[in-house]
Design goal:
Length: 296
């Protein structure tokens, strides 16, 4: 008897900096979510779609759960909470160093979930011995007794295939939600903004990367090349000066790094222009958050 097609939404949630984006990129086999060692790297809910003739898995990477300081954080938290309501399978990602009781209210909601919960204990390559892992697993079993616990290392690729196998087993039967050639629900220019934002996170310290938002104002594509004009918004003139750097040196560095990755992503030559503008207090202004895609 021919087995029926499976499809479902697998939503990845957890606290900041536990490796959710690295894990999603591993599972999807494409670099869709930006990865840095800084917290709050992921700001949007990003879907990555895996297709085979037998199934379609719609993975969803969400921002790390955090106590909101700005309206921006409220929108980010809403993306994570929304992920609890429309999942067929929930992937709760933690790691071997975080405090299991952090964000207890969100964890309590995960504990009440009726859908299968796979709890991934990431970064096990940092542990010294098996006994440490056993203690961590026991702790999490007490907090989320209904979850299946899978130790893993997303950076080392350890147990990622076992996790994928288990996800496929748990997928409900159903028709695909997206076309079988779809990789993500996001438009091309979204990934341009994410690549530029990643380079800002990597090259600047303190408040600058968290105050920066990127908008693509021009994206003109031909068979051979893409012409992109992007604007980086910051909240203060001093941040604009730091971002541009002496004689434009820092912005040039960001532009070169971003262009290389954008060319790799689209497999085309890219002409990239980046400008910097000041938009005071944008993280707390609803109209700007709507324009930047954080509020529908």
């Amino acid at each position: 008897m021919e087995s029926k097609h499976k499809s479902g939404f697998v939503n990845i949630v957890g606290n900041p900096n536990v490796g959710k984006s690295t894990l999603m990129n591993d599972l999807v086999g494409e670099r869709l979510s930006i990865i840095t060692s800084k917290a709050q790297t992921t700001r949007h809910r990003i879907m990555g779609i895996v297709n085979t003739p037998q199934y379609q898995i719609v993975f969803s990477d969400t921002p790390g759960v955090l106590a909101p300081k700005y309206k921006l954080h409220e929108s980010m938290r809403a993306f994570s909470e929304e992920a609890l309501t429309d999942a067929d399978i929930l992937l709760y990602v933690t790691d071997v160093v975080e405090d299991p009781t952090k964000n207890a209210d969100f964890l309590a909601r995960v504990a009440r979930e009726k859908v299968p919960v796979l709890l991934v204990v990431n970064k096990i390559d940092l542990l010294r011995d098996q006994r440490q892992l056993e203690q961590i697993v026991e702790q999490w079993h007490n907090l989320l007794p209904n979850a299946e616990i899978l130790p893993a290392s997303a950076t080392e690729g350890f147990n990622v295939q076992s996790l994928m196998k288990r996800i496929v087993e748990l997928l409900p039967e159903g028709e695909p939600y997206f076309g079988k050639d779809a990789l993500t629900d996001k438009p091309a220019r979204f990934f341009v903004t994410e690549i530029i934002r990643e380079k800002i996170l990597l090259n600047y310290d303190k408040e600058v990367p968290y105050s920066a938002e990127v908008i693509v104002e021009k994206f003109t594509e031909t068979d051979q090349s893409i012409h992109i004009m992007a604007v980086v918004y910051v909240e203060r003139d001093s941040q604009k000066g730091i971002l541009i750097g002496r004689g434009g040196s820092m912005l040039k560095k960001v532009g070169i790094q971003a262009r290389k990755d954008i060319e790799k992503f689209f497999d085309k030559s890219v002409f990239l222009e980046i400008f910097v503008k000041v938009e005071a207090n944008w993280r707390n202004r609803e109209n700007r958050l709507r324009a930047f895609g954080y509020i529908e």
